[in-house]
Design brief:
Elements lengths: L3 E2 L13 E8 L4 H12 L5 E9 L10 E6 L5 H9 L6 E5 L10 H10 L4 E9 L23 E3 L6 E5 H6 L12 H11 L3 E11 L11 H16 L5 H15 L3 H16 L10 H9 L7
Parallel strand pairs: 2-3, 2-5, 3-4, 6-9
Antiparallel strand pairs: 1-3, 5-8, 6-8, 7-9
Helix pairs in contact: 5-6, 6-7, 6-8
C-alpha cells in the first residue's frame, strides 16, 4: 500500500477490513509523543491504514517507513493542516489524530470504524478521551451537558476535533474543515454543517483514546481566536435572528467565567474582529436543524 502501513494481523485476503486515512498535524515540538502516537498506529488490527504527518511549518523527519509526510513551509493552522492531510491519504474513512494522543488498545480504530460504517447516516464517531495518567478529563471533552461517567453514548450535536473518525464522503460534502479558523471551534462549525446536511455524529464512550489533560488557554492566541471564531460560527451557520442571540450568550458566559482584565480585553478584540472580517461562505441552517440540535441537548444559541 503506497505510503501506508499494513497493521499487525492484516492479510491481503481480508477485504472486509476498512481502509482509514490517518492525518496527524504536527509542528514538530513533541517528538516523543509523536513517536508514541505512530507506534500505537502500528499495532492496530482489523484495519488498513494510510498515514500522513503534516508538518505545519516543520519538515517531518525520522518517521517510520510506512508513514509519509507533507511539508508546509508555513504553519497554516490546525484545521487547514487537517485538510491538507486528508488530501494526501486514501481510504473511505479519515482519522484525525493529535500528535500527543495515543491509542490504548489495538482495536480502537476498528471499533470506531464499525460505529461509522454501521449506518449510512453516521458521518463521524468521537470516542471517550481520557488522560493517560488518570487526571480528570476536562469538561469540554464530553459532548454532553451531563458528563458523569463520561456521558451517555449516542447521537450528539458537538464533538472534540482531535481524535475523531469521519466518513470521507461526509468530509468531502462539507468541503472539509473551515481552514481559515486556524484554531478553536472548527468542530462546532463542522458539526452544524453536518447536522444540517442530514448526517449524524455519534459519541461512543465505550471506546477510549488517550490525550493529556491540558488547558486550551496554553495557546497564546486562545482568547482572540476563541472570540473571533465564535462570531464566525454564528455568521456562517445560524439563521439571522439567532446570530445576535448566540453571540450575546457567549459574551455573558465569558464575563461570568473570565475575570482577568487583560484576557477579557483580548477576547473582546477578537470578538470585534469576528464582525469586521470575512468568515467565509454563509449557509444558514434550517429551522429543522435548530430543532434537531435542541433535541440533542445543544440548542444553537450556546
Amino acid at each position: 500500500m503506497p505510503g501506508g502501513v499494513t497493521p499487525v494481523g492484516y492479510h491481503a485476503s481480508m477485504s472486509s477490513d476498512p481502509t482509514i486515512g490517518v492525518v496527524i498535524p504536527s509542528m514538530g515540538k513533541r517528538p516523543v509523543e509523536l513517536a508514541k502516537a505512530l507506534e500505537c498506529l502500528r499495532t492496530q488490527t482489523g484495519v488498513v491504514l494510510d498515514t500522513v504527518v503534516v508538518g505545519n511549518g516543520w519538515e517531518p523527519v525520522g518517521l517510520p517507513e510506512w508513514a509519509h509526510s507533507v511539508y508546509l513551509p508555513e504553519n497554516v493552522g490546525i484545521p487547514q493542516g487537517r485538510n491538507v492531510g486528508a488530501g494526501a491519504v486514501r481510504g473511505d474513512l479519515l482519522f484525525f489524530y493529535d500528535d500527543d494522543a495515543s491509542l490504548p488498545a489495538p482495536d480502537v480504530l476498528r471499533r470506531m470504524a464499525d460505529v461509522v460504517l454501521g449506518s449510512p447516516r453516521v458521518a463521524m464517531c468521537q470516542p471517550r478521551i481520557v488522560d493517560p495518567d488518570g487526571r480528570p478529563a476536562p469538561r469540554r471533552w464530553v459532548p454532553r451537558l451531563r458528563v458523569a461517567d463520561g456521558g451517555r453514548p449516542g447521537e450528539v450535536a458537538v464533538f472534540l476535533e482531535g481524535q475523531t473518525l469521519m466518513r470521507r464522503r461526509a468530509f468531502d460534502e462539507m468541503d472539509g474543515w473551515p481552514g481559515a479558523f486556524w484554531y478553536a471551534h472548527e468542530g462546532v462549525d463542522l458539526a452544524m454543517r453536518l447536522i444540517d446536511a442530514g448526517w449524524a455524529i455519534v459519541y461512543a464512550p465505550a471506546i477510549e483514546v488517550c490525550h493529556p489533560a491540558t488547558a486550551p488557554t496554553r495557546h497564546a492566541t486562545f482568547y482572540r481566536l476563541n472570540a473571533r471564531n465564535r462570531v464566525w460560527v454564528a455568521r456562517r451557520n445560524l439563521p439571522a435572528v439567532l446570530v445576535p442571540v448566540y453571540c450575546g450568550v457567549w459574551v455573558v458566559l465569558t464575563l461570568v467565567r473570565e475575570h482577568n482584565v487583560g484576557n477579557l480585553a483580548t477576547w473582546f478584540k477578537g470578538f470585534a474582529e469576528g464582525w469586521r472580517t470575512d468568515p467565509g461562505p454563509r449557509r444558514p441552517m434550517s429551522w429543522r436543524t435548530v430543532l434537531r440540535m435542541t433535541q440533542l441537548g445543544r440548542p444553537p444559541i450556546v
